[in-house]
Amino acid sequence: MSAASIPDDLFAAPAPDRSFVISRSQLEMYRKCPRCFWLRKRHGIEQPDSFPFTLNNAVDFLVKRSFDGYRRRGELPPMLQAHGLNAKLFSDQQKLDEWRNNRKGIRWTDPLTGVTLYGAVDDILEFPDGSLAVIDYKASGSADGKVYPSYQFQLETYTYLLQRLGFKTAPTGYLAYFLAVKDQEFEGQLPFRMVVREAELNPAGVADYFRAAVELSQSDRVPASGEECDLCRFVGETLPVIKC
Length: 244
Description:
3-stranded mixed sheet, globular
């Protein structure tokens, strides 16, 4: 049995009324698996929790603190200078703290549907022409940081939100990668190699996903699973065994 062949009546419980807020990560969930998104937003069924990325979170905290120090001094961090960026860090620390907050973030409410889209950024660059560009920090054990599709869409979603709020945006977004160096002796300290990757963005495409996600969230029809959704595949393969 494939994931898509799970019986529709398995999820036939009445859907509760709920005021709608869609986070950036939930919109990414919709892209990967409409069924998992629908279960979350229509029926309140959460996916199982994953293990917390405590080391990544620690790097994120330290990088934010470091970048904020450069911001106060009016300087560009060396890794961004090395990339040749003619820009400065977004100077409004109070606004940035709000945009970074996971409970607030950059948020915009669609006047047509009343649905709010939001996401929490890591940092923002400001160019001489006043345009803004999103920077996202990434800690990884890989040898070389890549612009994965999910990372690209993450940058596009944040940029789309900035545009909806009336900000002028740059055509590119940036990933500040902190790559663990694994060819040195480990003496209680983990060195990182720092690289910047940039991506050409198409934030207009986010609008189509957002509209489709809003429509699906209001539907009672069970959508198809994402082709590469491991969770739906697991349910689809185990269901006939459990029913035996």
